[in-house]
Amino acid sequence: MSIIFRELLKKVGSGSHTHKDLTREEAANATEMILNEDATPAQIGAFLIAHRIKRPTSEELAGMLDAYDQLGCTVPRLSGDPIVTVMGTPYDGRSRTAPVTLLTALMLAASGVPVIQHGGDCMATKYGIPLVEIWQGLGIDFTRLSLTQVHQSLETTRFGFIYTPNHFPATQSLVNYRDQIGKRPPFATIELIWLPYAGNVHLVAGFVHPPTEEFMQGTLALRGVNNYTLVKGLEGSCDLPRERTAIISTHKPGDSEPYQRLKLHPRDYGFEGKEVPLESKEQLLAQIKDVLAGKSSELQKSVIWNGGFYLWRCGVCPALEDGLSKAESLLTTGALQQQLTEIESTVSYSNRHSG
Fold first, then answer.
1. How far is CA 119 from CA 168, 191, 218, 237, 329, in A?
2. DSSP secondary-structure letter at 204?
3. Hey, which CATH number is domain 2-71, 3.30.505.50, 1.20.970.10, 3.30.470.10, 3.40.50.1240?
4. How far apart are CA 347 and CA 145, in angstroms?
């Protein structure tokens, strides 16, 4: 296997003038050999950095996702086959700005929109706060659930979390490599657009650089994904900014154009302001609890701005203004705290009856 992998490595690592892109099938094979650790450590490290320097193509990313489908986990479709929103956020977490992705998910779930999030523990290159730790800080531990229990949580509470160290352990082999090479490999892009759900999906993912958005759009087209929202978000997440214009590309079934471009100016809706800094996990959790209690703050404004947009984008509200009003109402009436309590009860019951 290492001899076969060497030929694929030579293609992507031969320099700026002589390298060759992998076919979709070759990229899938390379990914399988990496995740199964059939290639040697030297080959894997060389491939990750060479592929980053070369820049992946949409066809290569599609092949890598094919391998994820083959080796990874998939949550079975829900009864009635509703559209499930899968939120792809950077696995290396957030380190500069306070994330509201978790509260956005609560808001959607409280409004009847099923949501899946996924990720693991603290990792390179940012070593930021991962989503699973924020959930744990709010009293909900997703790390012990089986995939069946994740499905049950999604069915019952309209929220599920895939903890990749348990549900897709092959990806853990990449964690040390990310630390050692000190750069995000193309697998970081794969994580953002991975869809571990068997039914109808709406992908939400963030990006930083315009080329990444283009790679994502091309990959999703090759994969037949026709319902997505890509956001030039805070630190590559799907959180909309408040200090600048939110740049968003969307596609939904039936669109005649490859994608629709949105530019939302927060000042036009009364939400312009400084991003809330991330000082510490403890402070973040205190701020989130204040938002759940209905207390006014800059973070609450960020939650309403994001929640309102996604309530509109997911079809709960007919216009953005309606979404913003509904988001504020969900906060002031305690609906998010109620949703959090429902998830906590379900997950705690599952954890008590695990194994």
1. 10, 8, 24, 13, 30
2. E
3. 1.20.970.10
4. 8
Q: In what order do the strands lie in the sheet with 115-119?
A: 159-163, 115-119, 84-88, 201-206, 228-231, 246-251, 260-264
Fold of 84-338: Pyrimidine Nucleoside Phosphorylase; Chain A, domain 2 (3.40.1030)
What number of H helices and E strands is found in the chain? 15, 7
Structure tokens at 216: 């994502």
Query: How far separated are the first and last CA of the chain, in Å rounded?
Result: 37
Question: How far is residue 36's CA from residue 343's CA, in Å, rounded to a whole number?
Answer: 34
Residue with tokens 């290569």: 60
**Cα separation of 198 and 102, whole Å?**
22
How many beta carbons lie within 10 A of that of residue 72, not counting itself? Answer: 19
For residue 248 the two structure tokens come to 């968003």
pLDDT digits (tens, 9 = 90+) for 304-314: 999 999 999 99
Residues β-bridged to residue 84: 201
pLDDT one-digit tens code per residue, 193-247: 999 999 999 999 999 988 999 999 999 999 999 999 999 999 999 999 999 999 9
Instruction: Say what the pTM is.
Output: 0.96
List the domain boundaries for the chain. 2-71, 84-338
Common-topology check for domains 2-71 and 84-338 = no
> Alpha-carbon distance 155 to 287, whole Å?
29
